Amino acid sequence: MTDTSRPGVRDEEILSLEGVSLWLSGREILHDVAFSLRAGELTGLIGSNGAGKTTIFRVILGLETPSAGKVLFAGHPRQRRSKSIGYVPQSIGLDPDVPLRARDLVALGLDGDRFGIPLPSRSRRQLVDEVLEAVDAQGFADARVGKLSGGELQRTLIAHALIAKPRLLLLDEPLASLDIRSEQEVVGLLAKIAKAHAIAVLISAHEMNPLLPVMDRVVYVASGRAASGPTEEVVREDVLSALYGHHVDVLHVHDRILVVAGKDETHHTELERTRTVVPRGLG
Amino acid sequence: MDAVLTSIFEPGFFTSEPVRVAVVVGGAVSLVSAVVGVFTVIRGQSFAGHSLGDLGTTGGAGAFLVGANPLWGFVTFAIIGAGAMELFGARRPRGRDMATGIVLGAGLGIAALFLYLGTTQSNTTGATITILFGSMFVIRASMIPVFALLSVLALAVVALLYRPLLLSAVSQDIASARGVPVRVVGALHLLAMAVAVSLSCVTIGAILSTAVLIGPAAAALRLTKRPGLAIAWAAVIGLAVTWLGILLAYDSYYWPPAGRGWPVSFFVVALILVVYLLADLANGQKARRAGPRAIASDKGPGVVAGRAWPSLPPEPGAE
Ligand SMILES: Nc1ncnc2c1ncn2[C@@H]1O[C@H](COP(=O)(O)OP(=O)(O)O)[C@@H](O)[C@H]1O
Ligand SMILES: [Mg+2]
Q: What pTM does this model have?
């Protein structure tokens, strides 16, 4: 998997959004969103349901065109629909009957956009095996995708995205349906991928605590507005209160951060999480 | 040996011109339907497929009314129907179902009118049966090139779109992020489906066309988890049930009530049901034998803690 043809340079700016606003059906969904992602860094895109996380991904992917602002990929206006961006959507609603094994789905990451029927190729097979190994998916490589568990499917989709050698990897709520153990596996895997291949990784979550051990930066989204920077500079009472437009408490409890947005009931999730004891660290 | 063979292939089976045309055309059409059907099933468009058949009824009935070859009626109406479904919200699965239902209802109403007018004019109920339930033995040999051309067209579309269709069956979002023109791909698949369904409207009948579209594909998906093999299985099943159905129908001429053969479509559809049930049974057996897989890949927490990521170097700065 080590890609020598395009060595990623650590800290190189891969993607930047500048003043992005987006109107859909007469509503401003995103307002003046700005942040940048660097090679080798893992950034958390944190916000409650409906904050605008998925929409930010869609703008980055070119599936929505911003009403204002710019999306720059490696310093240039992003060419539409690029292979250099890997994408794992929020939920894929897979038909259980789809005749694909995990390895077939990964192979589609390589050439699923091409026309015609692929000829069997040894190098293609080898590449698929390598990527499956990198995400530790050999154990279920030959299982039907519709039968995979949540964690297995996540890893397969990550492999599917990785095989095209992207410079930017976008994952929309990859932890949403995972138990704590798979959650830690996936988070650890993504952190290692970011570092090892100098890929910029952007992970959205409505809960930041599982990402805290590995997150280099955070983009905090609330009602279509975003604040970004190193975690300790963003997840602060003054910054988040300004973002929410009303007072927000930021509590540090052991290794966990709780954002209590007062009357905003959408943040109950952050509180509820504290009742489950989550060991910190990834071993 | 000879006796056995003649009791399977009743006299005249291989020399009869209608039988030969049925074997060639019926076989080809079922194969095309089965292959296109694999994508229909995995895209969740079985309902749309069925509706195209029902719309074909309208076209076939219209063609019968004006004295044209029903095939043209089937093709024209199925393609128009596919276009209408695509126009009215084919992008959203739910919208697609509603659009399909609305187009379908209108089509069947018109079919009822055409069939009523046609049969009361000419005083034949045979046409209604032919259009609804097909008739492989009355296909003229001169039509073979037309059937061949349309079959190749439908197969070419799905062969060309093989990977984009699979990818967008997994996720429309992933596919369009990768630059697959999902809308165009979906519309072309609908076109292939319209062509396949119109062909089977002639051979197996407008009402039963769904059976050859969905049945072999559904059975194939039970038998294998590999995309190429699923298509191969569907093709083989489609061909086998049709040929066997033709044979049984031919032989049934000697069954009670003697002197009148049973319809081919009955045999084909019955065989599809049998094959599907067998495939389902085989799948259940396989699942039971493959049970331990889930357990084997479920590693304990201890393994996770000490996990080595094979081809990745250790994270810099890790403890
Ligand atoms: N196509 C659209 N038209 C109108 N509103 C939309 C559209 N897509 C998303 N929205 C709205 O934008 C807001 C943000 O949605 P989304 O990005 O999906 O949030 P998140 O992923 O953070 O849960 C929601 O209020 C949603 O209803
Ligand atoms: Mg979302």
A: 0.84
For helices B144-160 and B27-42, angle between their N-to-C axes, nearest 10 degrees? 30
Lowest mean pLDDT among A79-88, B65-74, B84-93: B84-93
Nearest CB among A89, A95, A149 relative to B173 is that of A89
3-class SS string, B142-201: HHHHHHHHHHHHHHHHHHHCHHHHHHHHHCHHHHHHCCCCHHHHHHHHHHHHHHHHHHHH
Residue A244 CA to residue A264 CA, distance in Å, equals: 9
Q: Which of A21, A54, A204 best tests ligand 1's pocket when mutated (most atoms within 8 Å of CB)? A: A54
User: Please, what is the average pLDDT of chain A?
Assistant: 86
Give the model's pLDDT for residue B61: 84
Q: Looking at A30-44, A212-226, A269-283, B244-258, which range is the least confident one?
A: A269-283
Query: Residue A276 gets which letter from DSSP?
Result: S
Interchain contact, B167 vs A108, CB within 8 Å: yes
CB atoms under 10 Å from CB of A57, counted, come to 25
Q: Which amino acid is at B319?
A: E
Q: Report the residue count for chain A.
A: 283
More reliable by pLDDT, A47 or B208: A47
**CATH code, residues B14-304:** 1.10.3470.10
Residues 6+ apart with CB under 8 A from B122: none
Domains and their CATH numbers in chain A: 1-84+166-244 (3.40.50.300), 93-163 (no CATH)
CB contact under 8 A, A85 and B177: yes
Q: What is the ipTM of this complex?
A: 0.85
